[in-house]
Design goal:
By secondary structure, the chain is mainly beta. It has no helices and 32 strands.
Length: 370
């Protein structure tokens, strides 16, 4: 193993609510609109570093992988398109602002890449050429990642709104106001976008017309994006707990808080095999039972874990602020493999076509495979 020295069911109107994801692609943050973070295929039995790409500035944006191309944003303000097979650059798109791209991760649909920047602008860029299609300016920075649902693209802004735009033109269709920043990426279920807010509420917004259908007090603000499965949303909070929200019953189903340590959760969860996996700022990766919230296992890293895990077959992939990428056994939490980069990982891994792709705070994008 080579080491590199240095480191988010109602009236649908015309909205299609079950977008098709290519069989082995990772087209958006957490891969699918439900934000479950589960890859379409398993990783190879052995992994090695295939290539490293220098983005030129810190990468906190998580990659998308579609049709043999990696799309990822960097803090200097560039969206990069990289060949998945070779690591060679295909094109770069400049957002033309001094604030750059933060955690907003690209979403790719119908030949267009969507990404937000810290100037509050959502960019729609031609996936083949890197040429701008349209831009839409919100009132504050965008750290939320866009989600494309049929003819709509959804994105949150620090101006306190979730926006619904026409995906083809960028025309504003509606905006839904909250009482604080919208940091999280919305998860989509049955025509409704769900997200926890910095206002300590869990919101449900109908995608067709932007009308609120759920506003539930959760007694804790969150920056994490919910993962939704079987009518339950799972996410961590800055109130030092993880919660499961029963959407149908409109109530919190369970809460988990470590009895020995008080720490926030910034990582977004992945769901698989009856467990939710999530990183914590106490340096641990945890698996909790989805039905009860009881701990299954915990794996200790050497620094806080803001990266969100990906599940691929019976493996969990996650980065840590300690400068390592870990592959863990989903059932036991045992370490299967790790790679030491030397610079921390805040971005989350994308897994497709037998590859792991992730960027670090030193501006390197790594691809691992067999």
């Amino acid at each position: 193993m080579r080491k590199v020295l240095t480191f988010a069911a109602c009236l649908l109107l015309s909205v299609t609510v079950s977008p098709q994801v290519a069989s082995d692609a990772w087209p958006q943050f957490r891969r699918v609109p439900a934000l479950t973070g589960v890859a379409a295929s398993a990783l190879p039995a052995t992994l090695r570093l295939l290539w490293t790409y220098q983005a030129g500035s810190a990468v906190e944006s998580s990659a998308a992988i579609v049709d043999g191309t990696v799309y990822v944003g960097a803090s200097a303000g560039d969206l990069h398109a990289i060949d998945l097979g070779t690591g060679a650059v295909k094109w770069t798109y400049r957002t033309n602002d001094d604030l750059g791209i933060g955690e907003s991760s690209p979403a790719v649909a119908a030949g267009v890449v969507y990404i937000g920047d810290l100037a509050g602008v959502l960019h729609a860029v031609d996936a083949a050429t890197g040429k701008v299609r349209w831009i839409f300016k919100t009132g504050a920075e965008i750290k939320s990642s866009p989600v494309v649902v049929g003819t709509r693209v959804l994105v949150g802004s620090y101006d306190g709104h979730l926006y619904g735009l026409d995906a083809a033109t960028g025309k504003l269709l509606w905006k839904y106001g909250t009482e604080n920043y919208v940091h999280a990426t919305p998860a989509v279920l049955n025509g409704v976008a769900y997200f926890g807010g910095c206002d300590e509420y869990f919101h449900g917004v109908r995608i067709a017309d932007g009308q609120g259908v759920l506003k539930l007090s959760t007694e804790g603000y969150t920056a994490a994006s919910p993962a939704v499965a079987a009518g339950v949303a799972y996410y961590g909070t800055f109130a030092n707990d993880v919660i499961a929200v029963d959407i149908t019953a409109r109530k919190v189903k369970w809460r988990f808080a470590d009895p020995d340590r008080q720490f926030p959760f910034y990582s977004s969860a992945a769901l698989g095999a009856g467990v939710m996996v999530i990183g914590g700022r106490d340096r641990h990766v945890r698996a909790l039972d989805m039905a009860t919230g009881k701990p299954r296992w915990a794996f200790a890293t050497r620094a806080r874990v803001d990266s969100s895990p990906a599940i691929s077959g019976d493996r969990v992939v996650i980065g840590s602020g300690d400068g390592r990428v870990y592959v863990l056994d989903l059932k036991t939490g045992d370490r299967v493999w790790e790679f030491e980069a030397g610079a921390g990982f805040n971005a989350s891994p994308a897994v497709a076509a037998g590859r792991i792709v992730i960027g670090d705070v030193d501006g390197r994008v790594y691809a691992f495979g067999s």
